[in-house]
Specification:
The protein has one domain: Arc Repressor Mutant, subunit A (Orthogonal Bundle). It has five helices and three strands. The chain has helices at residues 16-23, 26-35, 52-65, 83-89, 93-100, and strands at residues 41-42, 68-73, 76-81. Residues 8-101 form the HTH arsR-type domain.
Length: 107
């Protein structure tokens, strides 16, 4: 079985409204906080308490907005932030979001 392939927007297709919309949800905000270490994470580790269909929905929103990269490795779906791309387009946005993701006001 060939690995799954995922569509990602080109850098010039990433827009601030889509990035902010993707980051506006508390579940996705927590996912981004977990991804902030710059490592690849198995999607199942980003929100352990969610049904797989809900997890897939949230990771798709982040990917389609240009916030994350997704790739298959075996049976795993590995995800990491597109930090360089987002920072180049919208300096400080991810840093501010990540810095405030753990605060009570983030909900």
């Amino acid at each position: 079985m060939p690995p799954r392939s995922y569509a990602h927007p080109e850098v010039d297709e990433i827009t601030l409204p889509r990035v902010l919309a993707a980051l506006s949800d508390p579940t996705r905000l927590e996912m981004v906080r977990r991804l902030a270490d710059g490592q690849d994470h198995d999607s199942l580790d980003l929100a352990e308490d969610l049904p797989r269909s809900t997890l897939t929905y949230h990771t798709r929103i982040l990917r389609e907005a240009g916030v994350t990269w997704t790739r298959s490795e075996g049976r795993a779906c590995l995800i990491r932030l597109r930090r360089e791309d987002v920072d180049a387009l919208f300096p400080g946005v991810l840093a501010a979001v990540i810095a405030n993701a753990g605060s009570e006001g983030a909900e």
